[in-house]
Design a protein that fits this description.
Elements (H helix, E strand, L loop, with lengths): L6 H8 L10 H15 L3 H27 L5 H16 L7 E5 L3 H9 L8 E3 L18 H7 L4 E3 L3 H11 L11 E4 L1 H7 L3 H16 L4 E4 L14 E3 L4 H9 L11 H9 L5 H6 L1 H7 L2 H11 L15 E11 L2 H22 L1 E12 L4 E12 L2 H14 L5 E13 L4
Parallel strand pairs: 2-3, 5-6
Antiparallel strand pairs: 1-4, 1-5, 7-10, 8-9, 8-10
The protein binds a DNA duplex through helix 3, helix 6, helix 11, strand 7 and strand 9.
DNA sequence: ATACATACC
DNA sequence: AACTGGTATGTAT
């Protein structure tokens, strides 16, 4: 039986399955036990415990800092924040209509196109799981061997990147360059040109996607990119371009739903009594004092329901990398061979993308799951497998002896292959 | 600027 | 017996 008393640690190990709505409590208990028994005592498990302890320490220090502020007059801070927020409010842009397209279990849907028989069977692709599997307690990113314990008849298919890329191209040439990432489409001009409503445009997108791939998909409309996950699956949700509607929407929104708030930040904010958008509002003064400027700006924008409305800004790639996980490896020669493989793969990717870079980073994960990285900035850009191997080797030699389960090579400070 | 770690999707 | 590849941010030097 699970004997852990630390709630945040259990949440970390179990994921959201344990609290999944629609599951019987006996099922939940069973799922909890299976996952716990399968994880207990593994190096991964112990590393998660370390990470959780670090988080608990951070939370303690945060609460201590808050205690120091008790009884202080913070009126001036409040005025500062309110001024700040009035400024943000003034920049609110309600003129754009944006559709958020998210294809749930996209890989699985593509596989079902190839093999319709799979539709009636529990099936997962790679280590991820599709919706149907979730009633067994299987969740995204759960390792296959645990998923199999929860559902022995589960069919796990290997990932086929090229296939999904092709599927995504077929879906919407307009925006889905990466099949696993949701797409944001600014349809403001399209609506003007066609005279269609946002609902009609979205309906059209959904129909085209269904025709081309039969993929399961979810779509919401939002100026503010926080409507996803509502009405899943096959749902469509319209958030009106109206301040009151948006503020009401944000008010009760659990912070974890915000793109950018993950497990750790959720725990940190929860410890400060912040669970919803409204809590952000109420705790704004203390958050201003406890969080970094960047974090507070993020919170501010979220609390006011402000999202990106200019989707035309395009980003340049900042880095490119290759990493591989393997069985624990301590032999130096074996490690050098692995480095060679990875350098060759990275060089091939660099050639394809026609880029080179001046900063090389070696990433290692020890057999106890702790991660380290070592980097070096060079006077000149490199791109050949030989050079990547040469500088990677220098970094790797420095760490000997070391027992590792993952190695990665990353190149940053990138430049176009043609330049200089 | 650079190095390293962490969080997130 | 717990992935990969990318971005952003915080902190120290």
């Amino acid at each position: 039986e699970p004997t852990e008393t630390n709630a945040s640690f259990m949440a970390r190990i179990l994921g959201p399955s344990a609290n999944k709505a629609g599951l019987q409590s006996t099922d939940k208990a069973m799922i909890t036990r299976v996952i716990y028994e399968a994880s207990k005592g593994t190096p991964f498990f112990e590393n998660e415990r370390r990470k959780d302890q670090a988080l608990c320490g951070r939370i303690e220090r945060l609460l201590e800092k808050r205690k120091q502020l008790e009884g202080r007059d913070l009126t001036h801070i409040r005025k500062l924040v309110d001024m700040d927020w009035r400024q943000l409010e003034a920049e609110r842009d309600l003129s754009q209509t944006i559709v958020h397209v998210d294809m749930d279990a996209f890989y699985a849907a593509v596989e079902e196109l190839d093999n319709p028989e799979l539709k009636t069977k529990p099936m997962a692709v790679g280590v991820g799981a599709m919706d149907d599997g979730r009633k067994y307690g299987i969740r995204s990113a759960m390792p296959g061997y645990i998923a199999k314990k929860l559902c022995p008849e589960l069919i796990i298919l290997p990932l086929n990147g090229a296939k999904y890329k092709h599927g995504a191209r077929a879906v919407v040439a307009c925006a889905l360059t990466c099949p696993s990432t949701p797409a944001y489409l600014n349809i403001t001009n399209y609506m003007k040109e066609t005279g269609m409503t946002a609902e009609q445009v979205t309906q059209q997108i959904r129909q085209e996607i269904r025709m081309l791939t039969n993929a399961y998909q979810t779509s919401g409309q939002s100026k503010h990119q926080i409507c996803s996950d509502i009405n899943k699956p096959n749902g469509q949700y319209m958030l009106a371009n109206d301040r009151d509607t948006i503020m009401a929407f944000v008010r009760d929104m659990p912070i974890r739903r915000l793109n950018g708030i993950g497990r750790v930040t959720e725990q940190l904010l929860n410890a400060l009594g912040v669970h919803t958008g409204n809590d952000m509002h109420e705790q704004r003064v203390i958050l201003k004092l406890l969080l970094s400027p960047k974090s507070f700006e993020f919170i501010s924008r979220a609390a006011l329901g402000l999202g990106r409305t200019d989707l035309s800004i395009q980003y340049d790639r900042k880095s490119i990398s290759v990493e591989r996980t393997f069985r624990n490896m301590s032999d130096v020669q074996q490690q050098m061979d692995m480095l060679d493989k990875i350098a060759t793969k990275l060089a091939a990717n660099l050639e394809r993308k026609e880029i080179k870079g001046a900063t090389i980073t070696l990433k290692l994960k020890r057999s106890d799951f702790t991660v380290l990285s070592r980097s070096r900035s060079l006077a000149q850009c490199i791109f050949t497998a030989d050079d990547l191997y040469f500088y990677g080797k220098q970094l790797l030699v420095e760490e000997q002896p070391i027992d590792i389960r993952l190695m990665g090579l990353r190149l940053s400070s990138l430049q176009d292959m043609r330049s200089k």
